[in-house]
Write a structure and sequence with these properties.
Elements lengths: L1 H14 L3 H21 L6 E6 L14 E6 L12 H4 L3 E2 L14 E2 L11 E7 L13 E7 L5 E13 L12 E7 L1 H8 L6 E5 L3
Length: 206
């Protein structure tokens, strides 16, 4: 009987499962389930365009910069691009990291504003050619004008650059960089009041 009891006791001690082992097994099972979920195609996914590399603000998009991926339908952002060709040659209005979905708000259309927009596109000639080398589409700038009696005045507190017009496209006899900016109708009227006066700028933080 003693031998039987000793055998049972020894078996009982050796067969005990430590709590740490149970926790480790559960964590391993969860990790396996997560990996299977990630690797299993979502039959209800939606194809959208994402950045295939890090893109700084003002980047002109090319097909090699983008790719189409399957995205969970419930996570697809509004107005996401679904075709690379629809985004080709557009410029980013903000920086995009690799894998970020490309949406209408993330790009600037150089030819037209989004449908239903109340904003305007207006050409503005900036006085300092050297400083305009710092500008890119998508940047927000503040416009100033020098006053005849000295000093300066804020013309418009904030506009967004839609396009920098190439010198060949502008009037060669005029100096200064011509830019197309997105602004409200009220700000457009304000700029018109300073026609013929030198316009300078300051780049606003993002």
């Amino acid at each position: 009987m003693r031998r039987a009891r000793a055998g049972i006791s020894t078996w009982s001690k050796s067969s005990r499962i430590k709590p740490q082992r149970i926790v480790a097994a559960v964590c391993f099972a969860c990790a396996c389930a997560l990996a299977v979920w990630i690797l299993t195609p979502d039959p209800d996914g939606t194809s959208i365009v994402v950045a295939d590399r890090n893109l700084p603000p003002g980047s002109e998009l090319r097909a090699q910069d983008l790719r189409v991926v399957e995205f969970p339908t419930q996570l697809v952002p509004d107005k996401a691009f679904t075709s690379v060709s629809d985004a080709d040659h557009k410029r980013t209005s903000a920086g995009l990291s690799k894998g970020s979905p490309l949406t209408q708000s993330a790009v600037l259309d150089q030819q037209a504003l989004p449908k239903g927009s109340t904003d305007l596109l207006m050409p503005v000639r900036l006085a300092d050619d050297a400083s305009t080398a710092l500008l890119q589409p998508g940047q927000r700038i503040r416009l100033f004008s020098s006053l005849p009696d000295g000093g300066s005045e804020v013309v418009v507190k904030e506009v967004t650059i839609a396009r920098l017009v190439d010198k060949a496209d502008g009037i060669a006899a005029q100096s200064g960089q011509l830019v197309s900016v997105i602004l409200s109708s009220g700000d457009a009227e304000r700029i018109a009041e300073f026609a013929g006066m030198p316009i300078s700028f300051a780049i606003l933080p993002r």
